[in-house]
Amino acid sequence: MSSRPSSPTARAFSSPPSTTSTDPELLDDIELFTTEYAFRRRELMDLINDLRAMGAEVLIELPSVAVIGGQSAGKSSLVEAVSGINVPRDSGTCTRCPMECTMSSATSEWSCTITIRTDYDSNGRPLPQSRIIPFGRPLTNKNDVDIWLRRAQAAVLNPSDPPHRFYKKNYQELKDFNSSGTLKFSRNVVCVSILDPEATDLSFIDLPGLVQNEEDDVIELVRNLVEAYIQKDRTIILTTIPMTDDIENQQSVRLARAADGEGRRTIGVLTKPDMLGDGAIGARRKWRDVLEGRAHRLRHGYYCMRFPDDAERDEKISRAEAQKRAIEFFDRTGPWCDIPDRGRFGVPGFVNDVSKLLCRLIEDSLPNIKAKVDELFDETTADMNALPKPPSLDARIEVLTRINNFCERFKEAVFGTSDYKKLAQRNRAVYAIFKPAIRSTAPEFRPFPGQAFEYSSVGDIQEVRDDVTWTNDPRVTPMALFDIRKVIHESTTWELPGNVPFEAKASLIRSFVSLWETHANACFASICEILNSVVEEFVKEHFGRFKALENHVSNCIAQELKTCVEEARQAVKDTLTQELSPSFTQDTLTYNNLRGSWLSHFRSYYNSHTSYHTGVPGGAQIEAVADPLRAVVQSGFEGLTSADVAKLVPGGSFEDEFVVMADVRAYFQVAYKRIIDHLPLTIEHTLHRSLSARLSKSLLTSVMSTSDFTEQAEKLISEDPVVAARRLALETRMKRLIDIKVRLSTFVF
């Protein structure tokens, strides 16, 4: 025998509640019929019934008793015998929804109340809130119960019709009723509350009979419904087993074993013993082994029932008479009369034992139920706190407040005056990349005769050295003295002798300024990408709760952003155009200092040019430069004579070339310093600050320009359906949990 379980549920199921056994483990400490126990039992039953009516079973497992069995297994007869009411049982009729039956002896007169508890929609999905629908008037005549149960079941199977539509339908009308919305089965429950002074306090749920001669989807639907109930650890399984068939053939037995492998919460109810003929000696022997625990052992064993046959039902014998005849049958019929435990035969002992077992299960489960409710309450509270705050009651204020907060937040980000530093910092990082990119376009002048590639770079003067690291733009072509002389030559028109044409310097300036467009466009594209991401982030932050408002604002901002981007792009283009012409600076002090330094720098390197010679292909070496004519021709002058060379190289002087180099290189430094500040400021003002200035008016106009601003605002802040559904579900759960906690708080543990 297995060790005694320690969990509350296991303890409740640890021993069978037989009233006749002498085994100390199988006895309860309190007598069933004492006043104290009867009162406590009623309290426990009332508590669980109240919790179930609140829909607690959707959230937590409640102790329960489920009656299962195949069609024609005697399940309806068992329900009638236990409850004392008549249930639909004529040919072609079967239970198509669960029936929850609650019996209480706290009354002096018999009455019955029927309600419908709706926990699921027509597709079988749980509803956020259980609905308890009273069905008809309280009944005081047992003969009325049958027809009203049929009517209630019809109402459950036709959820699209109002329940009162079925109040006056007769048997034939109910049988013939079938609409396009009629369900074959339903998980919603017909609740039957019986007040009977002769009853034993008990609550059970009668599940639809397991069917075999139906469509596959119906068979599976019923099986799934049964499995959903009996797999719960706090459910006592009453499986009805007809003795006219082998126990191994019973689907209800197989399902019970699958859900309760140890058999600790399953009770077998053997039916139809009177249909075993005198010659069925082997079958009687097998069933005796089952009843006495030698075969198909269950922790709580089996009970054997004999119910009225058709003739006796036609006689309309009383409940007491039916029980009397059953006892007489078991007392005089072998082998049942030879079994010592007489509590295993007939309805009274069975009902008392099951009631006692259920009460023990409820008592032991209550601490865990309370703890689970507290846990769910805390979880639901946390989930509700995690949701965004619900919309303001005044939609106009909600919309205007969110727009104003968004615009203010964006303005602060643009100006860098808030805790949000990301926009300014990311923009500065892009501008920091733009700086060395422009620096890389500096002219590469090499103050040496001959070809530029024959000499290495002469580096920068001290005045222009900074912390910027760059790599020369590959589009920059190094230029030596004869390259500069060629530019001067090609620019000369009607200048007087000794005057270098300004166009020579202007063309060299244009050559590096023209390279800036690529770097400026790359900088601008990166800035726009950053701006888009920040705008999206802010829109999501301020309007993300309301999809309609978010979409409206996004579309409006997109239009303004597009306009600002085009204007800023044109401003960038204009800024670059201004650098092309005229070549101008008022920073004469810096310019002159740089010009002088570069002039000295170039002259100095020219005087030591042999130290920077790298050689030419084919071993031409320095003699290639010694021939002035050859050097000039290699620099691009063609068709020249010695006399021409003499004019180009008078006395070997390159003073004009040094001056041009120094002027252009000095101006690059001034223009470079100017553009790396001017262009970022242009972008900041024409893009970011311009957009910031426009947004408030644009957004407010877009929402207030309609004829009915209130209606427009209400549409815009309609909560996201997913969030709204989540909020409703949590609020409904919280209300249910509060009701459950209040009910539990009134119970003395």
UniProtKB/TrEMBL annotation:
Keyword Secreted applies: no
Protein name: P-loop containing nucleoside triphosphate hydrolase protein
Domain Dynamin-type G: 59-367
Top-level taxon: Eukaryota
Keyword Cell wall biogenesis/degradation: no
A Pfam cross-reference name: GED
Stretch list, region Disordered: 1-26
Keywords on record: GTP-binding, Nucleotide-binding
GO function terms (MF aspect): GTP binding; GTPase activity; microtubule binding
InterPro entries attached to this UniProt entry: Dynamin, Dynamin_GTPase, Dynamin_N, Dynamin_stalk, G_DYNAMIN_dom, GED, GED_dom, P-loop_NTPase
Domain GED: 657-749
PANTHER family found in the cross-reference section: DYNAMIN, DYNAMIN RELATED PROTEIN 1, ISOFORM A
GO CC terms of this entry: membrane; microtubule; mitochondrion
Compositional bias annotation for Low complexity: 1-22
GO biological process: endocytosis; intracellular distribution of mitochondria; mitochondrial fission; peroxisome fission
